[in-house]
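Researcher: I'd like a structural prediction for the single chain below. Treat it as a standalone chain; there are no partners to consider.
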Amino acid sequence: MSKRILNVVTNVGHYDDPSHPTGLWLSELTHAWHVFEEHGYAQTLVSPAGGTVPLEPRALKFPNYDKTAKSWRADPGKMAMLENTASPDQIDPSEYDAIYFTGGHAVMYDFPDSEALQRITREIYERGGIVSSVCHGYCGLLNTRLSDGSYLIADRKMTGFAWTEEVLARVDKLVPYNAEERAKQRGARYEKATLPFVSYVVTDGNLVTGQNPGSAKATAKKVVEAIESNVSRRRG
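Model: Treating it as a single chain, here is the predicted structure.
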């Protein structure tokens, strides 16, 4: 049976200040989607509220706008998927081998407090499925607790968009909180690359996280490795 990936995307289109647009960082979806597609995995898009997904304007400009993102935008079927994403209550977690949280600053607003997404994530994680995120996607893990009440990321090695990168991207005054600091407050053993904006992925058991937009492809490949490792273990 085909493996299944649940890709999580945002419904938010701007920062607290409506004059500053944001949304899904498209390549963080398309790079991973392409990797999962190459392995024959079935994929679903879900968002906290279901429905439309705004796109981050800065992700649609060089050098962030690469061929996978251009190809997605040129495909009416793919763009229609971003207009009609599933809502969490339409998702049965038992059907998925992995959940993958995409980023873009928008997710800082609607990912952390979605109890429905937390439930899905917890169920996938506790039965040994893969929980993964890239860039700001880890905001979707900040408030997720396991059945014993502990934070999912507590005492786990992980990464995500660094505060240094927020400053260099000149959005440190716009973001609603310091995600790196919040992860540490929840007990995460946060790591980051020596240099900002280079690809960096951390795997800790069935938790796979990537630091920034340039890490999406590598993160997806590590998710595939983890899924295949799970399959081998079950066969063994």
